């Protein structure tokens, strides 16, 4: 299956008209080498490429597809919405329903934990990037302060101020400070190690009166899967509150995936603002940010902080998101958790048998493999792993019909449609992939 002539031909054609041939860098396979596969269809846990090869998909469109591809009820909801009109640029009923659904999910989790939900109002946008960008602007507007604290290796989308030492594509392409982000913008961002409350305290000791907000991934998924240490998110809440800064919990990746209420459902830390995307969109472009009423009331037109969007709350995207969230029963989360653990255990078994030092790490049902014998708690640890083993591992899996994230720094995503057959294909693929990882040559080695 290493042969993908049609994808190769399409990639050559794409590179003539699209920078690097892709519309988001990690898709280009540069971290693993080889030809990116052009997918033509998806069904349940499978993707089919332009050469007719079928893969078990462990990327899930980078998170959204918790019910698998082309789920009939989501497709039907989209078709029905599309028939009624694609976009109006007016308020619609679906937007209220989606906002109520998001707020309701966190309220249910808050109640179960004997607390009240910090999510009272949400604004719909089109992408996770737009959600974090808007949340940061709102935090700066509300506090009248100009600086943001973020964590090395956490990725919050390609927002200028947040592209300092960011994860994912930026790690992959080794451009920690991308050209185009000015030094003035970067100077407003303080980057500290993940899981390090002392570093956050030090940042506030140095710059406290200027810090508008701390933004964190609710659990890190963009440098591989790294859960916050127990008490880390709560510690951020305490420090920010003490200094009059806001806490922005980025749940774009974890939201409505790791539990019905995202990471908040597992660890109910009352952030001031939350950002959501991916699962809440059902696979179409939709995202959101929200928080307590008194903060959201500063947003235009209720308040002075401007934010807008021609396609925000698009009726078709809203219909997909609503259908996806309504299908997400408690059983779905039991399945996602169990499937993640089963695949993680299979990876551990194969890598142990091949003698490859590794850690399979989980953040809820997000997980990833680090080629190291140390637990990984931050970006420095993720970078210290033997990432050169990932390319051969990835390609052996691909050749055996398993589509993994094409970068060692990405989480693996499962869906509720991953059944026994899909797991058998993964189990059959892993031993050879583990041997390929074992045989991988360290760069620069003779
Ligand atoms: C935690 C997190 N925040 C924000 C984003 C940006 O979302 P989008 O790619 O929809 O702009 C991502 C994307 O992967 C993410 O993982």
UniProtKB/TrEMBL annotation:
Top-level taxon: Bacteria
Modified residues (N6-(pyridoxal phosphate)lysine): 278
GO molecular function, one term: glutamate-1-semialdehyde 2,1-aminomutase activity
Keywords: Cytoplasm, Isomerase, Porphyrin biosynthesis, Pyridoxal phosphate
InterPro entries: 4pyrrol_synth_GluAld_NH2Trfase, Aminotrans_3, Aminotrans_3_PPA_site, PyrdxlP-dep_Trfase, PyrdxlP-dep_Trfase_major, PyrdxlP-dep_Trfase_small
UniProt pathway: Porphyrin-containing compound metabolism; protoporphyrin-IX biosynthesis; 5-aminolevulinate from L-glutamyl-tRNA(Glu): step 2/2
Enzyme Commission number(s): 5.4.3.8
Catalysed reactions, semicolon-separated: (S)-4-amino-5-oxopentanoate = 5-aminolevulinate
SUPFAM superfamilies the record matches: PLP-dependent transferases
Subcellular localization: Cytoplasm
UniProt cofactor(s): pyridoxal 5'-phosphate
Family statement: Belongs to the class-III pyridoxal-phosphate-dependent aminotransferase family. HemL subfamily.
NCBIfam families per UniProt: hemL, PRK00062.1
The protein's assembly and partners: Homodimer.
Protein name, per record: Glutamate-1-semialdehyde 2,1-aminomutase
Organism: Jatrophihabitans telluris
């Amino acid at each position: 299956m290493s042969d993908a002539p049609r994808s190769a031909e399409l990639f050559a054609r794409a590179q003539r008209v699209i920078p690097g041939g892709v519309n988001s860098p990690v898709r280009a396979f540069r971290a693993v080498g080889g030809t990116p596969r052009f997918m033509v269809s998806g069904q349940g846990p499978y993707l089919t490429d332009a050469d007719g090869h079928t893969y078990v998909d462990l990327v899930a469109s980078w998170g959204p597809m918790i019910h698998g591809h082309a789920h009939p009820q989501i497709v039907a909801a989209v078709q029905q919405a599309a028939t009624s009109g694609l976009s109006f640029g007016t308020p619609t009923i679906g937007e209220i329903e989606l906002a109520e659904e998001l707020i309701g999910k966190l309220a249910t989790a808050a109640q179960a934990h004997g607390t009240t939900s910090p999510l009272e109002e949400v604004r719909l946008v089109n992408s996770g990037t737009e959600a974090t960008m808007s949340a940061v602007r709102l935090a700066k507007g509300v506090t009248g302060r100009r600086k943001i604290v973020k964590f090395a290796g956490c990725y919050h989308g390609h927002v200028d101020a947040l592209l300092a030492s960011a994860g994912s594509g930026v790690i992959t392409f080794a451009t920690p400070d991308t050209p185009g982000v000015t030094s003035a913008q970067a100077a407003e961002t303080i980057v500290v190690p993940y899981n390090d409350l002392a570093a956050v305290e030090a940042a506030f000791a140095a710059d406290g009166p200027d810090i508008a907000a701390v933004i964190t991934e609710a659990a890190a998924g963009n440098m591989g899967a790294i859960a916050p240490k127990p008490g880390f998110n709560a510690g951020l809440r305490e420090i920010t509150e003490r200094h009059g800064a806001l806490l922005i919990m980025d749940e774009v990746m974890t939201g409505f995936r790791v539990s019905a209420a995202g990471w908040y459902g597992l660890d109910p830390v009352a952030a001031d603002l939350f950002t959501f995307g991916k699962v809440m969109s059902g696979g179409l472009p939709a995202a959101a940010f929200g928080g307590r009423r008194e903060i959201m009331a500063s947003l235009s037109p209720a308040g002075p902080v401007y934010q807008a969007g021609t396609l925000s709350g698009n009726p078709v995207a809203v219909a997909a998101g609503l259908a996806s969230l309504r299908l997400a029963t408690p059983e779905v989360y039991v399945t996602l958790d169990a499937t993640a653990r089963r695949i993680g255990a299979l990876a551990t078994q194969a890598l142990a048998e091949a003698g490859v030092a590794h850690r399979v790490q989980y953040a809820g049902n997000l997980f990833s493999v680090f080629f190291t014998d140390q637990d990984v708690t931050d970006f420095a640890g993720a970078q210290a792993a033997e990432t050169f083993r990932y390319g051969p591992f990835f390609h052996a899996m691909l050749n055996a019909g398993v589509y993994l994230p094409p970068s060692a720094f990405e989480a693996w995503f499962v869906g509720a449609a991953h059944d026994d057959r899909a797991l058998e294909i993964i189990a059959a693929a892993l031993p050879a992939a583990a041997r390929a990882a074992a045989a991988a040559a360290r760069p620069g080695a003779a």
